[in-house]
Design goal:
alpha/beta, TIM Barrel, Immunoglobulin-like, eight-stranded parallel β-sheet, 17 helices
Length: about 650
């Protein structure tokens, strides 16, 4: 793979006309795509909150050399509980979290060893693009220049160097991108806040020079005194986006499920890009095929396709996470995804992933995936809820003998009900995670460990459930260090997502209400557990691609006493077991959601695969003393069974 410098030391392009993709890609060898994304483990991080490169102690570099002494810019020591818990004044700590904190691309590159040893195979990075000048858009979703990296994060060359280093470390890179909107780059007439109103287009004044500017820069691409000073901090770039027709200009969405308001309105203050036209009849809103068939792309959509092709060509990234798919016309999604896939394949990236954030329900997500060509979906409403609260003993795991889809395992086992003829369909197309940065639709927001002091004791079993069940597993940064961000305020839920976006590097906004201490602790018990499980997952193809079956369990082990576990009075503090089967190999996995008791139960396994009666062996347990212990196969009226022991709040794998 070529890592020779490109022309990135030249000034940032102001126009797409200045980009020659053919020349940029000529004679360059690009990093190949994985054969299957389901084989890997994703790790999502918010760049501003991850690392500033000043940490020391507790971790090693990507060559396994310990980074354990201060000096040479390393000034932040490792967090130590309980001494560092709550060492920041709460009000000042929270205010610090509402703005830029200081994470950088260089800091992320510095932690590639930490990520590699955790077992991560692909890192999903929040948007890196230049934000509106003076804004607090640390999250990256308020773009002002689509062709540049925000100076808070670093430079384009640093991004290229990070991707190359990640590839050398066996980690691919997925970049979070936005097509639906830009930042708050222009002002409505008189700098007034406007809301969606029956599709009306509101009059506008001009582009902003910086945050809250009343619109000093006229629309259009021409030169002139009024436009002087717009580069690089003002207006929007590249110049092709500066026409008034780029924008929908219909004001902010208020009804987030109202059609076509949720498609055409501004995403809060972020300005909606007009991606094209199609039918707008509410009576036909259900007809996605017709909406796609009659869709006509705008010039702005063509510009966006070229923008993101450029980032692939320049940096050699391996995939995109496409933001706010719900708010894009399906025809626009299809057009964009096709344009990206074709370009990626033309430079040798045959399996370049475009993963869509699709809120609005699982059936809708499946339909959008089928009809637009997206490779996978995340953000599906009911999936993280069922995953999280099954681990917390408050949900049914499901019931394979019914058509109800009330439990987590039902979402995968009843694939025929969704028109899918393969057990593996969900494994390839659904991203699963227990924590995220948004928690769309929830009023009070918190991480997995943030709702209850007991939740941290269930974190390992939750991660076992996530990493050893069907789907493409994703870990949200800090979860492997038991981050417990939670909005504990009463009567105010504004900026609630801030509490889930603590700084791994500490700064003024570290988790556990701390400051000045980092959390890259490779000795942390959860970090170690995830690393061991990922290593096992990498060895056992059944844990990555196998068919999945929820298993009946029995405390007594007697015939007629095997059941699929179900909640009693809303609680299920018991063993939930499942098998992953690939060809002639079966991995039996189980969690124990009881925090009070180690439980020993009999579990049904595949009769045909165990006709020889060879024992199954514990190959991983949260109680490491169990590993290597063999259990005999027993024969019951229900078939082959094994009797296993699952530690309280624990997770086991038998093979």
């Amino acid at each position: 793979m070529s890592t020779a410098p490109l022309q990135d030391d030249a000034p940032v392009q102001r126009s797409l006309a200045d980009i020659d993709l053919e020349n940029l890609t000529a004679a360059r060898s690009y990093h190949p795509s994985p054969s299957s994304w389901e084989d890997g483990v994703l790790y999502f991080l918010m760049l501003d909150r991850f690392s500033d490169g000043h940490e020391f102690g507790g971790f090693s570099d990507r060559y396994a050399a310990p980074v354990d002494v201060p000096g040479a810019g390393r000034t932040t020591p490792l967090f130590s509980a309980p001494a560092d818990n709550g060492n920041a004044p709460r009000d000042a700590w929270f205010e610090a979290g509402r703005g830029w904190c200081g994470g950088t691309i260089a800091g992320l590159k510095d932690k590639l060893g930490y990520l590699s040893r955790l077992g991560v195979t692909a890192v999903w990075v929040s948007p890196v693009f230049r934000q509106v000048t003076g804004s607090g858009d640390y999250h990256g979703y308020g773009i002002q220049n689509f062709l540049d990296v925000d100076p808070h994060f670093g430079t384009r060359e640093e991004l290229r160097e990070f991707v190359a280093a990640a590839h050398e470390s066996g980690i691919r890179v997925i970049l979070d991108i936005i097509v639906n909107h830009a930042g708050d780059v222009f002002a409505y007439r008189d700098n007034q806040r406007r809301f969606y109103q029956d599709g009306r287009q509101w009059p506008v004044d001009g582009y902003r020079l910086r945050r809250d500017d009343p619109g000093s820069v006229p629309f259009g691409e021409g030169e002139g005194e009024a436009r002087a000073g717009a580069w690089p901090d003002g207006a929007v770039w590249p110049v092709e986006f500066q026409q008034e027709s780029t924008w929908s200009r219909r004001g902010e969405i208020r009804d987030w499920d109202g059609y076509p308001e949720y498609l055409d309105g501004d995403f809060c203050s972020l300005k909606e890009i007009d991606l094209g036209t199609t039918i707008k009849d509410p009576a036909s809103s259900w007809d996605l095929l017709r909406r796609i068939r009659e869709f006509r792309p705008s010039e702005a959509l063509d510009h966006l396709v070229k923008v993101y092709r450029y980032w692939i060509a320049l940096t050699d990234i391996d995939g995109f996470r496409l933001d706010t798919v719900k708010h894009m016309e399906p025809g626009a999604v299809r057009y964009f995804v096709t344009g990206i896939h074709e370009f990626a394949q033309s430079i040798g990236k045959e399996n370049f992933a475009v993963i869509g954030e699709i809120t609005g329900g699982r059936s809708r997500a499946i339909e959008i995936l089928d009809k637009t060509g997206l490779d996978a979906a995340l953000g599906i409403d009911d999936l993280p809820d069922k995953l999280e609260f099954l681990a917390k003993g408050q949900r049914s795991p499901g019931h394979p003998d019914t058509i109800d889809q009330e439990g987590y395992f039902d979402l995968f086992m009843n694939s025929l009900l969704d028109g899918k003829n393969s057990h593996q369909w969900y494994s390839k197309h659904i991203v699963t995670m227990i924590d995220d940065h948004d928690q769309v639709g929830l009023q009070r927001k918190y991480r997995f460990c943030g709702d209850n002091p007991e939740s941290s004791r269930r974190l390992k079993l939750a991660l076992g459930l996530n990493l050893a069940t069907a789907g493409i597993p994703c870990i949200y940064y800090g979860t492997e260090q038991a981050f417990d961000g939670a909005d504990l305020r009463s009567g105010d839920d504004s900026f609630g997502d801030v509490f889930m976006r603590e700084c791994m590097f500490g700064g003024q906004f570290g988790t556990h209400q701390s400051q000045g201490r980092h959390f890259f602790d490779e000795g942390h018990e959860v970090y170690r557990f995830v690393g061991r499980l990922c290593e096992l997952r990498n060895r056992e193809i059944a844990l990555r691609r196998g068919r999945q079956y929820l298993r009946q369990v029995s405390e007594s082990g007697r015939d007629g006493d095997f059941w699929y576990p179900q909640p009693v009075n809303g609680n299920l503090f018991w063993v939930v077991a499942w098998s992953r089967i690939m060809a002639d190999s079966e991995c039996l996995c189980a969690i124990n959601t009881s925090l009070d008791r180690t439980l020993t139960v009999s579990v049904v396994i595949d009769r045909k695969l165990h006709e020889q009666g060879r024992p199954m062996t514990c190959v991983l347990s949260t109680d490491e003393s169990q590993e290597g212990l063999a259990v005999p196969i027993e024969w019951k009226g229900c078939g082959a069974t094994v009797r296993i022991t699952v530690p309280s709040g624990g997770f086991v794998v038998y093979r």
